[in-house]
Amino acid sequence: MKNHQYKITVRWTGNTGKGTSSYREYERSHEISAENKVLIEASSDPAFRGDKTKYNPEEMLLSSVSSCHMLWYLHFCSEAGVVVTDYNDFPTGIMTELANGSGHFTEVILHPEVTVSEESMIEKATELHQKANEFCFIANSVNFPIKHIPKVLVK
Description:
The chain has helices spanning 57-80, 122-135, and strands spanning 9-12, 30-33, 40-42, 84-88, 92-97, 103-110, 113-116, 146-148, 151-154. The radius of gyration is 19 Å and the shape is elongated. The chain is an alpha/beta fold. The strands form three sheets. Strands 1-2-3 form a three-stranded antiparallel beta sheet, with no helix packed on it. A three-stranded mixed beta sheet has the order 4-7-9, covered by helices on one side. The chain is built from two helices and nine strands; from the N terminus they run E-E-E-H-E-E-E-E-H-E-E. The mean pLDDT is 96. It has two domains: 9-48, no CATH class; 57-154, K homology (KH) domain (GMP Synthetase, Chain A, domain 3, 2-Layer Sandwich).
């Protein structure tokens, strides 16, 4: 077994001068950074008084699931001789907010649109989504189902 460690910095930038003196007195804006990487400006979802022009944690979760799946998928396609020439995903997720204000995701659905170089690759290209899901570090770390509705095209 091999352990990998990750380190980021999350810095709240939403103090409007009154700190958290009241629920409505502060912004939910924050920055996510890591050494030698581009800064990500984030906030909460607008439903929770966030800035709609910035990424929120729920969108970041979807992007983590989708990115991890894509990277494993491309890896397995390259090993299987499936030549992918284009890949786009349009993930969706459902988060249920509970009466007490807490909540949790109940599912994420990936909608990858994959283009392969030959028609003979379509079946294998479709199959490999399941294998990618089984290996994805993020998918193996969450407690909700991740479904796939792939579309495979030929160019």
